[in-house]
Specification:
Blueprint: E1 4-5, E2 17-18, E3 23-24, E4 33-34, E5 50-51, E6 58-59, E7 65-74, E8 77-85, E9 98-105, E10 112-113, H1 127-130, E11 134-142, E12 148-155, E13 161-168, E14 174-179, E15 197-199, E16 201-204, E17 209-212, E18 214-215, E19 218-223, E20 225-226, E21 228-233, E22 239-241, E23 251-253, E24 264-267, E25 272-274, E26 277-285, E27 301-308, E28 316-319, H2 330-333, E29 342-350, E30 353-360, E31 364-371
Parallel strand pairs: 16-25
Antiparallel strand pairs: 1-3, 2-4, 5-6, 7-8, 8-9, 9-10, 11-12, 12-13, 13-14, 15-19, 16-17, 18-19, 19-21, 20-24, 21-22, 21-23, 24-26, 25-26, 26-27, 27-28, 29-30, 30-31
Length: about 375
């Protein structure tokens, strides 16, 4: 693989920062640079309430934390759907109710936010899976006909979580379809706990934005936390995991000793089909002992990239040795996740640039920008 060297700019709070200095191939989406000002782009608010349909009373739905965002381009703007936690429950990670807020921007940095959530638990057929924990960690793609397909984690606050799917035409009114693998393999995966699902996209040059992509007549989705796995679909709603010879979900990316992903590899934003292959951005968690990456703090989350074959999405071609985004700034290290994280979930192509949206320490939303190719 042809190698070129990237020189990083000096890291300094309040000025533009290039996020990597490593040997790179020609396939990756990089280098990512934080804007000189504006981060975090979304933070908690104390003045927004809505009447929760289950509690039947006003709640401060985004008062505690706003993080882990999806992103999509619509009507010439960037829309970010972000996870927001209220102040109910216990003061611990996963102890509050999560809903999804909606914000829009013309520059990708300064956002106008709705005062009420766009997606949330309700008295519907998914309530048992979503209450009281909520709806978490969205990823979003647009289908060829303009339908928005949202993958997200259902968490009931007790004993259940899994990735699910919902669809919308306007980002405000949603139809929930339930867990991704509910109908797969004669119910084999109904008790599986899993999350973090990114559906393959391609850059539609005529539309100037990412659209869900097919390979060999099927849609593809990289999913999971621990290892990353793979699934296919005919309709973007019903998904079937690819299995190995033993009948277990096929592993695409696993952990690596002494790397930033030594503890786990978890899917990030929807992957992109490029001329070089399928580029996935994923989140790696560092180990807490000597088997981790000594350049990162114990338990820290950083983002890496890998390349898969454009004709065979199960064929890994390349994987970067070092993260393209890692916790460096105060807002990425100060929050409810004290080890620090830059947890990527939203990627859009906008004004000939890549905008990568990520959660900071499970508390805020920020953005990093890379040049388009």
């Amino acid at each position: 693989m042809k190698i070129r060297m990237m020189l990083a700019l000096a890291v300094a709070f309040g000025c533009a920062v290039t996020l990597q200095a490593q040997s790179l191939g020609n396939w990756e989406i990089a280098p990512f640079t934080r804007p000189a000002a504006g981060n975090p782009v979304i933070t908690p608010r104390t003045d927004t309430t809505f009447v929760d349909p289950i509690r039947k009373e006003p709640v401060h739905w985004e008062i505690l934390h706003t993080f882990n965002p999806a992103a999509i381009v619509r009507n010439g703007k960037i829309y970010v759907l972000y996870r927001a936690e209220d102040n109910s429950g216990t003061m611990e990670i996963g102890g509050h109710t999560s809903r999804v807020g909606l914000a829009e921007s013309t520059d990708g940095i300064h956002f106008t936010r709705r005062s009420e959530p766009a997606f949330y638990p309700a008295n519907d057929d998914q309530k048992e899976r979503e209450w009281t924990g909520g709806v978490e960690d969205p990823r979003i793609v647009e289908s060829e006909d303009g339908t928005y397909v949202l993958t997200y984690t259902q968490w009931n606050g007790r004993d259940y979580y899994s990735a699910a799917v919902a669809t919308s035409r306007d980002l405000l009114h949603w139809k929930k379809h339930g867990p991704l693998f509910w109908g797969a393999a004669a119910g084999k995966y109904r008790t599986l706990k899993y999350k973090s699902a990114g559906i393959l996209t391609r850059l539609d040059k005529a539309k100037g934005r990412l659209i869900a992509a097919k390979i060999n007549g099927k849609y593809w989705m990289y999913w999971g936390d621990g290892p990353i796995r793979l699934a296919t679909s005919d309709d973007l709603i019903h998904w079937t995991p690819l299995e190995d010879a033993a009948g277990k979900p096929l592993v695409m990316l696993d952990t690596r000793t002494h790397h930033f992903d030594s503890n786990l590899a978890e899917m990030g934003p929807p992957p992109v089909l490029t001329k070089d292959g399928i580029v996935i951005i994923y989140n790696g968690m560092n180990q807490t002992d000597s088997s981790g990456d000594p350049a990162l703090g114990p338990g820290a989350y950083a983002a890496g990239e890998a390349l898969f074959d454009a004709k065979d999405p199960a064929q890994l071609l390349a994987r970067l040795e070092h993260p393209v985004l890692k916790p460096e700034m105060p807002y990425e290290k100060t929050g409810q996740y004290v080890a620090g994280d830059t947890f990527t979930e939203g990627l859009v192509y906008y004004h000939n640039q890549w905008f990568l949206y990520y959660g900071c320490a499970d508390s805020f939303v920020s953005v990093a920008i890379a040049p388009g190719k």
